[in-house]
Amino acid sequence: MDPRRITAVSQIQGLPTRMSDRFLSASRMHCHDAASEAFAVEFGRFLDQTDGVRNPDRLFCLLSTFALNFDCPWIAYGCLTPDKRALKPVRGDAKVMLQYPDEWQERYCKMSYETIDPIIRTSRTRACAFRWSEVYNDASTTDDERRFFDEAATFGMNSGVSVPLHDPDGSLAIMNFAQAGEGEFANRTINYLQLAALHFHLRLAKSANSSGSGETPALSPREKECIVWTAKGKSSWEIGMILGISTNTVNFHIKNVMRKTDTGSRTAAAIKALRARIIEL
If you write DSSP's letter for every residue of 97-111 in order, what string do you get? Predict the structure, then answer.
């Protein structure tokens, strides 16, 4: 066969492959751009939805919904006490807001994990968001701190990102985002979560200085279930049996309702929730 023909055939046969490679590369770039645009749209929607909102629980709910775009069903926000040892309320406007698995919340409180929580330790000296895997793999992380992350993973929180929020007065808040997947968070994802956390933190500070205390508190579905059964005269043990959760978990949710409704007893909380039409019997 003519060598020139062989060369020509080879070039023709190689052409579709090169075109295919370019097509796949262009497709991946298009998908990447489309994802970036979608995230930008969702972030813009989050900003619009939070505009003018003064209720802290409503703001937290909107942030939770935004985090779902990045497969993060678990989020938590809290301020450090002046001694910077634990995440607890400092002032009336500085809350601890949690959307973590109930069982992990119980375990965390029972074991006083705030004393060894490596996220708290790391947030003191970090200015930007960080992956939990970075802390886990850091040479300065102790075995106890690694066990903390390992145990959190058994409750479905396999990977996470934390955002330290330092204020000019020296106070510190931390926003955590966690997901069940074990993959690393993309840099783009971390950027959006950090921006959303900062916006939430600033909106929360603004709401503390406004007159929004008269707004109807937002209760989670589980909190509503617990306080409805409380209004029906059920004990924590009975509610736990009905809902299939522990008595401690029931008490945890009822205490949250009491805090959100600014009441001193579960009965008063139930009455206030009924009057505000947050729940119905």
Answer: EEES-HHHHHHHHHT
